[in-house]
Amino acid sequence: MSAATAQDPAVERLVRSLSEHEVRGFDVVYVLGSGLGAFAERLQHARAVPYSALDGMPQSRVAGHAGKLVLGELAGRRVLVQQGRVHLYEGWSAREVTRAVRAFCRVGARAIVLTNAAGGLRRDWPAGTLMRIRDHIALQGRAPLARDERGAANVWDEALGLALERGASDADVRLESGVYAALLGPSYETPAEIRWLAEFGADAVGMSTALEAVVARACGARVCGISLVTNQAAGISPTPLAHEEVVAAGAAAAGRFSAVLERALPHLCAAL
Questions:
Q1: Could you give the domains of the chain?
Q2: For 205-257, what is each residue's pLDDT tens digit?
Q3: Cβ atoms of 194 and 236 closer than 8 Å
């Protein structure tokens, strides 16, 4: 833990609040993106803590983000699920967007599984495609780390990524692999921007995840993640894009998505 993190009053308040609500005793945290909150329903002996009860926990105003933590058991292991995140485009700073990840690392998280809804840049990937995040391109113009925090060049953990692939295989669900591009938003990308991103190696694009991944790794956690391709991006999709489409696609893919995360957990824990 860096000196900057230790001296951040908001992180300290959130850490204390998590401890007061007995949010502890887990190794793995799942951060759920837009429309993907149904995964938390799979937890047994679950206990929910609304963000409003946690001092210092930013609360999203975007549809599809429930705004609560769920602590419970999955496949015989204790896990924490974050239902909903905040975004830069809502007016939050890079430090605020990543505050929860910092606090989770402080109270024991060893692995962070980041998920998101994303636009697809591959014409052969229809809506509903699941993509293991192999790497990312951060184009949000914000730095989440303080000067005395050391970031890692290789943020995405290969062993945990392979654990996700094993979970997908166990669940008999196809899991692609690719690069996630993170843009600021809130507007969707133009067809010209999509062509540019594709030329630079991106396979999916969204407005979250990259900053959380960088901070989690800098705080000592290992990171892996999955994007749900909820729509094909502008210039590829024949129809206009809308957030309602994102939420609906998340609901339609909830079963496959949740099965992969659940079946991957034993493999994730074995890799830690």
A1: 3-271 (3.40.50.1580)
A2: 999 999 999 999 999 999 999 999 988 776 676 666 666 776 777 788 889 99
A3: yes
* Residue positions counted in the chain: 272
Q: Under 8 Å CB-to-CB from 258, ≥6 apart: which residues?
A: 38, 39, 41, 42
Active site residues: 34, 65, 87, 89-90, 117, 207-208, 231, 243
Structural tokens at position 210: 């990259």
Look-up: residue for tokens 């989440």?
144
Q: Which amino acid is it at 222? A: R
pLDDT in tens, 121-139: 999 999 899 999 999 999 9
* pLDDT value of residue 2: 45
CA dist 11 → 14, 56, 210 (Å) = 5, 7, 19
The position carrying tokens 């905040």 is 86
- 4-13 b/e with 16+ CB inside 10 Å = b? ebeebebbbb
pTM of the predicted protein model? 0.93
Cis before 186 (ω within 30): yes
Mean pLDDT of 81-105: 95
Paired tokens of 114: 């980041």
Q: How many CB atoms neighbour CB 22 within 10 A?
A: 10
Neighbours of 86 (CB within 10 A): 24
C-alpha to C-alpha distance for 195 and 152, rounded to whole angstroms: 28
Residue appearing with tokens 């184009």: 139
